[in-house]
Design goal:
It is a single chain. The chain is α/β, with parallel strands linked by helices. It folds into two domains: 176 residues, Aspartate Aminotransferase, domain 1 (Alpha-Beta Complex); 250 residues, Aspartate Aminotransferase, domain 2. Helix content is 40%, strand content 13%. The protein contains 17 helices and 16 strands. The site of ligand F0G has 16 residues, from α4 and α5.
Length: 465
């Protein structure tokens, strides 16, 4: 059959609260134009994040009841540890309550002033944790990643030339290289196995450890199995083994490809580093056999890590994202191509060319998607990721101005995707009337979470094809 169906039946449903456009206009003003400040009951389709928002399976709900809440030595931890070792092939497993706690522990241990952490594109919390340690986070994503319309298959790849220059320049100050799979901030684009091998070879040459930010490891493996000639059709488990065999360790947010609502871990090969991390873990997260997680959550993640490698599940997930991306591209709406692993990324710089980067075209677009159809998305552009020039203190624009429509796992169906397409198209048709936004107040770090904004006057009309 050519129709790829949701490979599940629905046993429990959550009602969606419908709102009118007029109400949404009022609500977004009351939220100071920040979508994080909306109540989720006031959202019709919530694509703010794919993190912790997925539906658990009946087996995961059943596993919760097996959760053993012992402070030390819980069998739930043993099951969790065994699955992580089996899937990733890394021995020392340190549970944390979510991904950023893993990052905080890791960079607290290996970061520090004068250090540099190169990556393909650090996610916002990763960058914040690297920088909080006093180190510098630098991004060396491949050149193709900047062309949102190119159909290049592995736009998450590391730029090997620039990484080599960095390691040659400051190898002794690089505690590790971090490759994020898939590259979330860069459009959910995968990293090829060949690229990971090339990064590993450089790390060996310069004696630097390689870590993987594994949040979406299964989606990356699926896209390798579809797009990398030498890997086509291989079992996902084998591809995952090959990816992680190259790594000295990984950080993980189980809220993504753990198919759970909370959880995470660090896995490292080096026993001494594991000892240091566990010492820090007990101060901030919890004892070594639960980290910041309840026993029941350890069980849910252990089950989720197996389910996420189901080829039927991955086929369906990718098919619905690809469907939206191809339809949008077909009517000329600027969208990151090819389809990434977990989200649809609109290219706001091309959607709203009349809005300069420092009036945040991505935020302006996200606001309109909410007003139009109650769709909540997330700006991933200069509002979230602008840098600061260390010499002048001036703000530097992000590499791209994107709006991310992150698809929660196993949560929405095909008709939700059709509705989403309708909403985006309606905003597209009135794009010339949309103006930028300005910040009225924002904290210095991770400002997009709590910033307040107001609309600028709509920009003068420009010719839009
Ligand atoms: N690394 C990547 C690539 C991520 O996408 C995230 C979270 C984290 C680390 C941190 O994990 O949330 O469990 O602390 N990304 C979410 C998102 C928030 O919406 O993309 P966490």
């Amino acid at each position: 059959m050519k129709t790829i169906i949701e490979p599940f039946r629905i046993k429990s449903v959550e009602p969606i609260h419908m709102t009118s456009r007029e109400t949404r206009e009022r609500l977004i003003q009351e939220a100071d134009l920040n979508l994080f400040a909306l109540k989720s009951d006031d959202v019709i389709i919530d694509l703010l994040t794919d993190s912790g928002t997925g539906a658990m399976s009946s087996e995961q709900w059943a596993a919760l009841m097996r959760g053993d809440e012992s402070y030390a030595g819980s069998p739930s931890y043993q099951r969790f540890e065994a699955v992580v070792r089996e899937v990733f092939g890394i021995k020392n497993v340190i549970p944390t309550h979510q991904g950023r706690a893993a990052e905080h522990l890791l960079f607290g241990a290996v970061g520090g002033a004068g250090k540099t952490v190169p990556g393909n594109t650090h996610f916002d919390t990763t960058r914040a944790n690297v920088e909080a340690s006093g180190a510098k986070a630098v991004d060396y994503c491949c050149a193709e990643s900047l062309d949102t319309s190119s159909n290049s298959p592995f736009k998450g790849n590391m730029d090997i030339g620039r990484l080599r220059d960095c390691l040659a320049r400051e190898g002794q100050n690089v505690p590790l290289v971090l490759v994020t799979v898939t590259n979330n901030a860069g459009g959910g684009q995968p990293v090829s196995l060949a690229n990971l091998r090339a990064v590993r070879a450089l790390c060996d040459e310069f004696g630097v450890p390689l870590f993987i930010d594994a949040c979406r490891f299964a989606e990356n493996a699926f896209l390798i199995s579809k797009r990398e000639d030498s890997e086509k059709g291989r079992p996902l488990e084998d591809i995952v083994h090959d990816m992680f065999r190259l790594a000295d360790g990984c950080t993980m947010s189980a809220k993504k490809d753990g198919l759970a609502n909370i959880g995470g871990f660090i896995a490292v090969r080096n026993g001494e580093l594991a000892r240091i991390l566990r010492e820090r873990l007990v101060v901030t997260e919890g004892f070594a056999t639960y980290g910041g997680m309840a026993g029941r959550d350890l069980e849910a993640v252990a089950q989720g890590l197996r389910e996420v490698l189901s080829p039927e599940y991955q086929e369906y997930r990718h098919a619905s994202i690809q469907y939206v991306v191809e339809r949008l591209a077909g009517i000329g709406i600027p969208v990151v191509q090819p389809a990434g692993g977990h989200a649809i990324f609109l290219d706001a710089a091309r959607f709203l060319p009349q809005i300069p980067w420092n009036e945040f075209p991505g935020q302006a677009l996200a606001i309109e998607l909410y007003i139009e159809g109650g769709v909540r998305s997330c700006e991933i552009g200069s509002l979230m990721l602008a840098g600061v020039d260390p010499e002048t203190g001036a703000e530097i624009p992000a590499e791209r101005e994107l709006v991310r429509l992150a698809i929660p796992r196993r949560t929405y169906t095909q008709s939700h995707m059709d509705y989403l397409l309708e909403v985006i198209e309606a905003v597209w048709l009135r794009r010339e009337q949309i103006g930028g936004v300005e910040i009225t107040s924002a904290p210095p770090v991770l400002r997009h979470f709590t910033g307040k904004y107001r609309r600028r006057q709509p920009a003068p009309r420009t010719a839009v094809s």
